[in-house]
Amino acid sequence: MSTDDESKSQPPAFDLALHVKYLVGLKNKKEDFESCMTEHMRVSGLYWGVGAMALLNREEEMDPAEIVDWVMQCEHPDGGFSGNVGHDRHLLYTVHALLIVAMLGALDRIKRDECATYVASLQQPDGSFAGDEWKEIDTKFTYCALSALKILDRLELVDVESAMAYIDTCRNFDGGFGNIPGCESHGGHIFTAVGALSLGFALEQYVDDELLGWWLCERQCDSGGLNGRPEKQADVCYSWWNISSLIMIGKLDWISKEKLIQFILACQDPEDGGIADRPGNVADIL
Hints:
Blueprint: H1 16-28, H2 33-37, H3 42-55, H4 64-72, H5 91-103, H6 112-121, H7 139-152, H8 160-169, H9 187-199, H10 203-206, H11 209-217, H12 236-248, H13 257-266
Helix pairs in contact: 1-3, 3-5, 5-7, 6-7, 7-9, 9-12
């Protein structure tokens, strides 16, 4: 394991009520500095907030009807969603919007065919997916596209086999994946690559689970948290990406879950609620 300087003191218990208060409060914040700086990705912020509340079985406290009505204002006439009302549509915000309305039981309000056609139109000749009309390529967009089409029950609209083969071109000698061919392995990109391969039922074909499992478990630091790549600090976000990948390849028992839980608990804000990336830092929705 790599080392870091995070505190090793006993963490506090999980404060459910305080975190619920924090999440509900974030939904109503629209004019503070942080909200203004993230205006372009408000749909994604709502996804993380609603997702957290759903995990806590408290999503009804977020005013689901109001949230769904607002998300539907971000729907493009020709399918797909933008990150905020009046912005350009993008694959990332499209899948987050779909996940929000799915969690809140409102998928019937989506323009299903138009949305699926938009997502499918972003597949490139090499099997990859662009995020939007400007053609940026990234493994996360393949994951977003397949996730969206799975939700919409329209996977037949794209060449899944070609998408799987493209993901394989992003695989590295260490078993991990980069965001495009030739880029270093990275916890976030591994999650999107493995997630896409899982959706395409191609994990056994394209993943060396022993090699990848070793790379992922090596990300656990002395603090108990996991980092995103070698020689970096542990943080909660990368811990989530990495353990999600470990679960998908059946290697979660290769890390200390107890130490990871202690690390996450130590990242709580004991006064205002929420969880930060590292102990002592400011909490955020991600």
